Amino acid sequence: MSESEPQSALRELQATLTSPRYWLTVGVVVLVFWITGPFGTLAAMGPIKRLAFWLLLHGAAFTIATVSAVAADRGLTPLLRNKLARMMIGSLLAAMPIGGWIVILQSGLMGDPATFDEFIRQAAVSLPLCILFCVLVYLTTGRDEPQAPFAVESAGSTPEPTSVSAPSLGETREPPPLLARLKPETRGKLLRLSVQDHYTDVVTSRGRELILLRFSDAIREAGATPGLQVHRSHWVADDVVRRLSRGPNRLTLELADGSEIPVSRTYAAEVRDRFGDRG
Prior knowledge:
There is one protein chain. The model is unreliable at 1-5 and 142-172 (pLDDT under 50). The chain contains nine helices and nine strands. The protein is an alpha+beta fold and 279 residues long. Helix 4 (47-75) crosses helix 5 (83-93) and helix 5 runs antiparallel to helix 7.
């Protein structure tokens, strides 16, 4: 089932906001600012009030910058090919609302006057933090992605079988775009893909690697590699399937490396058509 752009952006936000690395960074930043008390907060506030101030400030600032970066990544895709550049534009634009939030907090918790000059000053001060937020989100969500529509399997929905046909005779097969995401030493013939939380486990003829990428996008980036999605969490290349086993309650694919992949009912008919002669 295809996913709309807002749903795709929400999915990326979810991946970011559930990343331990993301929250570890937030916690470290809050801790440093709480202990050091910059911008006069050490003298003007007690420990509890100062902790509340920096939690509110950085909690909102990280959220605003993250949402802005992800929104810009989606919105500017037709104009800019570089993912980091798109996200950086969004994060830098977030300096304005972040500056406004800082002025509000200072006025409410420190009694400072809320002036336009202070708003401009705080927006300028927020720019380096916005760059930090952008880099953090970029590292969390992954590297540049090929410009293609996004799709995920919605909870409770029946995903459509996903297969890739072999190229016609005389056609030169390009390396799967997915291989560009792997370390050079892992790039080999694509064998199978599996879901691992927010990650996809990519197995090639030269090893395996976990990458932060939606499973449906990983299948799409398999490109012209002949293969078939056989389960909600598994995709296999055609030439690694050794045998199709028919058990009393389910089908199972035995692969060349000896591993076994379950076949769900959704894909059973297509699996029988594709691999039925390997029983």
